Amino acid sequence: RKLALKYHPDKNPDNPEAAEKFKEINSAHATLTDLAKRNIYDKYGSLGLYVAEQFGEENVNTYFMLSSWWAKGLFAVCGLLTGCYFCCCLCCCFNCCCGKCKPKAPEGEEHEFCVSPEDLEEQIKTDMERDGETPIVLQPTNATEKTQLIGDSHRSYCTDS
Fold first, then answer.
1. pLDDT score at 73
2. Strands (E), the chain
3. 89 pLDDT more than 60
4. Is the pLDDT assigned to residue 101 strictly greater than 70?
5. From CA 71, how far away is CA 78, in angstroms rounded?
6. What is the DSSP letter of 9?
7. Distance CA 143, CA 145 (A)
8. Could you give the CA distance from residue 94 to residue 87 in angstroms, rounded to a whole number?
9. Could you tell me the CA-to-CA distances from 66 to 52, 60, 84 in Å, in that order?
10. CA distance linking residue 117 with residue 52, whole number of Å
11. Got the DSSP string for 33-62?
12. What does DSSP assign to residue 139?
């Protein structure tokens, strides 16, 4: 309290260093008065307080446990032994991605993947003629404030029909 009063910004208006010192004193006081923060600081230091600020006080122990060298090693060994990295190795290391290992088409059948726009248009027309439907060739006009939203031109503000 004495240090806080000594470095208070109201008592030192022209000293920016006093304001910074006052903030540090308040932060230290908040840490010392809160039992959870004090325990975290005693165990992990200022990094522990930063982790508590980022991830929550209840997750500090978990963070430091998972960031230890033995936890990282255990994760890597378990991943390799259980085959969790199988997909990555298969796709990247053995060139099985992007269809390189897919089965070949039977002899005599060619599959054309690129279709020209003219052929596609012709196919759409023949499909429409066969189905008996006519394609929509006109776009709707833009709506304005004078466009009628009700089709029977009977204006009503009631919700029941």
1. 87
2. none
3. no
4. no
5. 10
6. T
7. 7
8. 10
9. 15, 10, 19
10. 60
11. HSHHHHHHHHHHTHHHHHHHHHH-GGGHHH
12. P
CB atoms within 10 A of CB 90: 13
Distance CA 38, CA 32 (A): 5
C-alpha to C-alpha distance for 49 and 54, rounded to whole angstroms: 9
CA 21, CA 4: separation in Å to the nearest integer?
9
DSSP tally for the chain: helices H, then strands E:
8, 0
Whether 138 has a pLDDT exceeding 80, the answer reads no
- What six digits make up the tokens of 53? 């600020």
According to the model, what pLDDT value does residue 111 have?
Answer: 58
Decide if pLDDT at 44 tops 70: yes
Q: Which is nearest to 5 in space by CA: 22, 20, 17?
A: 22
Instruction: Give the model's pLDDT for residue 121.
Output: 81
On the question of pLDDT at 71 being above 70, the answer is: yes
Extents of the domains making up the chain: 68-99
Q: For tokens 């089709």, what's the residue?
A: 151
Mention every residue, 6+ apart, whose C-beta is less than 8 A from residue 91: 97
Q: What is the pLDDT of residue 105?
A: 62
The total number of residues written for the chain in this structure: 161
Look over the chain and give the mean of its residue pLDDT values, rounded to a whole number.
Answer: 73
